[in-house]
Design brief:
By secondary structure, this protein is α+β, with helices and mostly antiparallel strands. It has 2 domains: 68 residues, Ribosomal Protein S8, Chain: A, domain 1 (2-Layer Sandwich), CATH 3.30.1370; 55 residues, Dna Ligase, domain 1 (2-Layer Sandwich), CATH 3.30.1490. Helices cover 25% and strands 35% of the residues.
Length: 133
């Protein structure tokens, strides 16, 4: 089984894991996926991640975060913006606002993969990867 776009696959797996109220989910490892998940942990959307090595592949196991005892999901919406067939680029002053700045937009810039707040602060634009609320 080959995966062409690992970030898109990871976002779909996270969305599906929240739909069935799973505690954790395994994602195929890539540098981009690892950095995006690290940002989500730093922003408080996920609990933690661990690197799991199988015989032939590396996986990132992430632990999902819920509110309270009723297990209300923390990430209510996660969507992929830039896709392999249609890349979306934006300057720092034109970065899309997501949910009145209550959500975050993750951008791949020349200084690395950062949130839209860091991109605006550092005055760099780039490829808009995904949006989380």
């Amino acid at each position: 089984m080959t995966q062409n776009y690992l970030l898109g696959d990871a976002i779909t797996r996270v969305r599906n894991a929240y739909a069935v109220q799973a505690k954790s989910v395994k994602l195929l490892h890539s540098k981009v996926t690892d950095k995006v998940m690290s940002i989500l942990i730093a922003e408080g959307y996920l609990l933690k991640k661990t690197l799991v090595e199988d015989q032939h592949r590396k996986f990132i196991e992430i632990y999902l975060k819920y509110f309270g005892n009723r297990r209300k999901k923390v990430i209510s919406e996660i969507k992929l913006v830039s896709k392999p067939g249609l890349r979306i680029y934006s300057g720092y002053n034109d970065l899309p606002v997501f949910k009145n700045n209550l959500g975050i937009t993750i951008v791949s810039t020349p200084i690395g993969i950062v949130t839209h707040k860091s991109a605006i602060k550092n005055k760099v634009g780039g490829e808009v990867l995904c949006q989380i609320f």
